Structure formats: C-alpha cells, structure tokens
Amino acid sequence: MAHSHINEEYVSDSSSDFTEYWIDLFLGIKGNEYFCDIDEDYIRDRFNLTGLNQEISKLPTLIDIITDIIEIEKQPEDQRSTLEHNARVLYGLIHARYILTTRGLNKMFEKYRNGDFGYCPRVHCHLYPLLPMGLHDQPRISSVKLYCAKCEDLYNPKSGRHSVVDGAYFGTSFPAMFYQNFPQAIPVRTKDMYVPRVFGFKLHNYSKLSRWRELQRRKVEKRLLNAKPEGSRGGKIYVSSDKNDENAVNQDP
Amino acid sequence: MSSDPEEGYIPWIQQFCELFGHDYFVPVSQDFIEDDFNLTGLSSQVPFYREALYTILDYEVETNPTSDDAGGGGQKNQKNELPSKTILAHSAEMLYGLIHARYILTKPGLTAMASKFERNEFGSCPRFLCDGMHMIPVGATDVPGQETVRLYCPCCNDTYLPSSSRYLNIDGAFFGTSFPGLLIKMFPEIENQCAKRISRVDSSRLGLRLFGFRINELSESGPRMKWLRAYPKTEEEKEEFEQCELGIPNVLDESDGMYNSDSDMVEPDDDDDDDRTMASEGV
C-alpha cells in the first residue's frame, strides 16, 4: 500500500506511540480473521461503491478514515465511535464486492488454502476447508455462515466471535464465484453416508431413507454421465472411502 | 490413579468423570460393575483386567495373582513398579470406557445420558439448518483404540467431529456404535424435535447462487450433493421412497419417464417424515 502521508506517522499526537493503518488495525481485531485486505485503489474508485451511500451516511469521510487520509482521533469526540462503527460496516460491504473481483478472489484463495475459515466438521468430509458466505446481501439480517463444497452444506462458525460477523460482508455469491474461478479446488464428492445401527443392524426407517437418497444420488450420477460421458475429473463424480461397498447401502446385514 | 483412602477420598469413577475432557461420560453405577455378567468378555480385551477392575471399584488389591510384574492396585506396591502403575491406570480407563459403552445401553444409563443430552452437554449440531439440534456421542467402531468419539445429529442424520480438541483423545468405543439408535428409540421426543426442524426447511432456497442465479447441475461447479440432505416431498418421490423399503429399486436402467405417469397432483407436503407407515404401493 502506497501512502503519501507516511511522514505523518511520526508526528501524530495520538495516544499510542506508533500509528498503524486503519485496515491493518481492523484486520487485527479478534473475530475479523475471515476478512482479507482490500486494495486502496479499489476503495478509492467511486464506481465500486455505487449504491453504498444508501446503506451508510457520510460516505466520503468514512472512505478517508479507511484509507488513513484523515485520522479518527481528529474527529469530534462524540462522533468517533459512530464513525468507527460505520467505517467497519463500510469496509465489510466493500469487502463483499471486492472478494468477487479477480484480486479479491486470489487473496481469499490464499486464506482458503491456509484454512483461515476452518474445516468442515462433518466426519465424511475429512476436514475439507470451508468458505465464508452470507445468507443475505443486505447488512444486519444474518450472520456469516460457512460453506463446505464437499457436502454442499452450510455450517455455523465454531467460535462465538465469528457468529456475530455480518454475513453481508461476504455476500451470497462468494462461494459460487470462488468455485467458478478455481475449478481445480472443487472436490470429488463422497458417497459415504452415516446410517445409525443398533448392535450392527441398521435402523429400518433411517436405512430406508438412506436407500432413497442413494437412489437420488445415482440418478444425478446417471444424468451427469449421460451428459458428459467422460465424467468429472478422473472419470469419477463420486468416490467412496470404503473400497468394497459398491452397494453398501443396499445390503442389510 | 487410585485415591488415597486417608485424605479427601474421591471414588475413582467420580475422579475419572471429572477429568478434563471427560465430560461426555456418565458415572456407571457400582452395582452394574459388580455384576460379573455385565463384564462378560471384557477380561480378554483389557490387560491386567482384575487389577483394573479393583482400581475402578476402589478396592485395595492385596493378592498378587498370576502375572509377575503386576503389583496390584495399592499405592505401596505400586511405588516400586512405576511402569505398571501407568499401565494399570491405562487399563482401568479402558475397562471403565468399555463398561461405560455397555452401561449407557441399559435403562439407567440411557436415562442418565438422556438428561445430559437434554442439557446439551454434548454440543449442538454445527449445521446451519439443524438449528442447534443437540448431538449424541457415538463411536465409529466398538473396538477400542481405533477411532475417537464423534457426535451424531439425529436431525441431519450425520456424524461430526467434536468442536473442541479436548475430546480428540476420547475413544469412540467408550460410547459404542449402538448408542444413538437406542437413545432415539427410547425417547421418541428426539425424533419429534427433528421432524419439526426438518419441516421448517425451505428446500427451494438451498444450493449455491451466483448473483441470485442457481448454478446448473451440468456445470463443473454445479450441485452434486443435494441427495445427501433430501427428503421425499412430491408424490412420486414418496412412491419411490416406499419402493426403497427393502432395497434400491432398479429404475435407472429404464427411461427416466417412468415415474411421471399417474400422479399429476404434486402437492408440496412438508411433514414428509410422518408417512413412513403408508402402505407400500409399488413392487
């Protein structure tokens, strides 16, 4: 990040001895581990912020705060906490847009590879990395959820500090865009299913349901193979960790 | 491991259940352990079985039976044979775990575990749509030393890893594979809770979207796993579900138009879980 006002760091009269960039401070806050840093050029380009002034007032001031052009300490004291709060909301909303761009996607891919968003808790997903996702694109409706591409399901964040992060800061489109851009990250799905057993015998109702689900799965597989006979990568759409279970759900003990 | 009888005597079982990370365990009643019938077959699975058993029951072990290096459970005998003390502690934990797996299948055990379940001591399902359903500990196998404990969610019918790493050294065999199934059969209320949650889910909202548009199934990043959480909703799906009574019907070799014949009334019915008693029509 190029800062024209780098000298100001040393003459600042703020309470701390050193001044950090607002974005770095924001990313360092506990609970903000899911965010990536946004290029300053992206924030300064007004086109990228189209429509955000409907969500938040004093947009120009907030942009200046985020990009360290003005310091929040120089603002009237009674407004500081509101400004700081709104700056965070604005950063989140810009973040939702930024992570759909090529550069944002690449940054998020790096975080995904590091497992910054956590891993799928489902046993059959074998700790597949998750992606953050919102259920709504409007802020203040729902908190962030985590998407697993292996089971295609949504999970609540493990830690309480993440369950208060607004989902709109990631947006509803992010995982779809992510896997469109990085098809190499799409996992081969597993056909493993859990069926409760009592003394080795599968419970009938559950077993029937899992047979029906297996049937649905085979239908999908058949449709896909009819459309693209070479199948997915490696010629397989689904794999099973159990080698000899070709009809595992089918046979009752 | 065995407590000193003189000062602040805490029974071994209580001590064990209060250890860090052992909060999934319930205390097994003394009577259950003392009944030899309940322990059938365990003596071949656990080394130093008799000493381990006495440790659990807080007996002083005065006899020194067959094996030459097992010094019994008493503190004094143990001091000069430190390695066997750790082995004995390990055996006692393993034996207790295996007894625990049997105990929680009995009526008092199920009741004790059910109240833990009720208090959400095993954690809630991490899956968003399960809406905090309480989970039940389960083992992947009944053989000790193979897999750690997992949590079964009766709502999505799937197993999850415990959210805290403190449970990563708890053996799954100490809970066993049969426990969740029996608990659900014993307390049908659990199934009602799940049915409520399932009926609330609006399946049309599921699946990834890009700017509001669903991704086509034929796309490489398209949906592949909808079946995993699916429930039969439409009439034809329910008919198909009934055909799955005893096996997977072999419908895939025939044309896909097989089902859209006589049932034109596709009514969105939500409480799909209750019609399992519906008389099977096909086959």
UniProtKB/TrEMBL annotation, chain A:
Record-level GO cellular component terms: cytoplasm; protein kinase CK2 complex; UTP-C complex
Region annotation Disordered: where it falls in the sequence: 226-253
Gene: Piso0_000902
Domain of life: Eukaryota
One GO process term, biological-process aspect: regulation of transcription by RNA polymerase III
GO MF annotation, one: protein serine/threonine kinase inhibitor activity
Classification via SUPFAM superfamilies: Casein kinase II beta subunit
Name of this protein: Casein kinase II subunit beta
Sections of the chain in a coiled coil: none
Quaternary data: Tetramer of two alpha and two beta subunits.
Family: Belongs to the casein kinase 2 subunit beta family.
Protein species of origin: Pichia sorbitophila (strain ATCC MYA-4447 / BCRC 22081 / CBS 7064 / NBRC 10061 / NRRL Y-12695) (Hybrid yeast)
InterPro entries found in the cross-reference section: Casein_kin_II_reg-sub_N, Casein_kinase_II_beta-like, Casein_kinase_II_reg-sub
Purpose of the protein: Regulatory subunit of casein kinase II/CK2. As part of the kinase complex regulates the basal catalytic activity of the alpha subunit a constitutively active serine/threonine-protein kinase that phosphorylates a large number of substrates containing acidic residues C-terminal to the phosphorylated serine or threonine.
Automatic annotation (TrEMBL), chain B:
SUPFAM superfamilies for the chain: Casein kinase II beta subunit
InterPro entries linked to this entry: Casein_kin_II_reg-sub_N, Casein_kinase_II_beta-like, Casein_kinase_II_reg-sub
Region (Disordered): 251-283
UniProt GO cellular component terms: cytoplasm; protein kinase CK2 complex; UTP-C complex
GO MF assignments: protein serine/threonine kinase inhibitor activity
Domain of life: Eukaryota
SMART domains from the UniProt entry: CK_II_beta
GO biological process per UniProt: regulation of transcription by RNA polymerase III
Entries under Pfam families matching the protein: CK_II_beta
Biased composition (Acidic residues): 264-275
Function according to Swiss-Prot or TrEMBL: Regulatory subunit of casein kinase II/CK2. As part of the kinase complex regulates the basal catalytic activity of the alpha subunit a constitutively active serine/threonine-protein kinase that phosphorylates a large number of substrates containing acidic residues C-terminal to the phosphorylated serine or threonine.
PANTHER family assigned to the protein according to its UniProt record, in alphabetical order: CASEIN KINASE II SUBUNIT BETA
Family: Belongs to the casein kinase 2 subunit beta family.
Quaternary context: Tetramer of two alpha and two beta subunits.
Name assigned to this protein: Casein kinase II subunit beta
Origin species: Pichia sorbitophila (strain ATCC MYA-4447 / BCRC 22081 / CBS 7064 / NBRC 10061 / NRRL Y-12695)
Gene designation: Piso0_000836
